[in-house]
Each structure stands twice: as structure tokens, then as C-alpha cells.
Amino acid sequence: MSYEMFLWLPRHIYHFFISIPAGDWAVVIAELVVAAVIYMELEHSRDNAFFEKATNKEARDDQGAILRQCCHSQLAMFNEMGFEIERWFSIQRFRGKKNKLISIFPHGPIFFWFIVAPYVCERRKLTGPWFGHNALMFIKRSIEYVMIYSKQLTLNLPGEDPPVIISNEELQSMLKRLNELIEDNKPLKRIS
Length: 192
What we know:
Blueprint: H1 2-19, H2 22-55, H3 57-86, H4 91-94, H5 100-104, H6 107-127, H7 133-149, E1 152-155, E2 164-167, H8 168-183
Antiparallel strand pairs: 1-2
């Protein structure tokens, strides 16, 4: 029975194709060509729109503003996390769980610092040494935590073929720079 079905199906398909007149086949082929041309025009207009947007200076400025806003929100989040770790009245501080927030994703603040350190340093010069102080404390604690458990970190950036390797020496250099920046924020003695 199944053998007959396999013979029946090809026969009916063959009969379907030969029963259509040549003029109708010409219409089908013409419609497929029109569909292909429409698709190519659509792809071309998408490419043009992308290239226009990518080369538009105002769009790049808007993207820069968006990136700047994202960096500020990340810095604000790390500032808040640094405040949570360093406050004196924290219950976690007395229970010995200061590293709980850091242990969740210790590499995130380090990668953030690796990318935006020049910007934060420039902002600290312009505004004062208090800018991002708690975030720097949190990043410093993250580096200290990572250095206990690993020798290097690997950062895979989009478009970068070899990943960026942050070695233990670079982590120590980052930690030294952070310590210098944090020391700049120590309160001055009052002049009596």
C-alpha cells in the first residue's frame, strides 16, 4: 500500500506540472522575477538608510550622547554599590559579608574601569576628587577580589578579533592608580 502511495504522489505532481499551459508558466516566472527585483530594491534601500545613518554626524552625536548617558548610569550604579559596601551602619559589614555584592559580578566594574578610566579621571579633574569616589571604592574592591581568584581577565569586545587580556600586572597597575585617586579624596585637616 505504501509503495503504491509513493508511485501515486510523483504521478500526480508530474500531471499537475504538465497540465499548466506554457503561457501560465511564463506568468509565474515573470512574477518570481518581479518579486526578486522588489526584494533587491528593498535590500538596497535598507543599505542606503543604514549608510546614511552611519555617516550622519548628528546621528553620531546622538549616539555619543546615548553612550555618555549609559556610562553615567553605570557609574551611578557602581557609586551606589560602593556606598552600600563602605557605610559604617551596614548589617552586612558586621556580618563579614562585604564581598557579597562584589562576588556577584566582580569582572563588570573592572571592564567598566578599563574602558572609561580616562573619562572618569578627566571628570575628577574638572569637578573635584569626590566625583565617583564610591564607584572607585567598589571597583578597587572588585579588583582585589578578582586578584585572589584569577591571574587575568579576558574582555571580548565586538569587532576585536583577539580578545583584550587584562593581566595580573595590569590589574595591579589599575589598583595602584585607583589607590592614588582614592587618596586624593581623603578629607583635609581643618585649619584651626
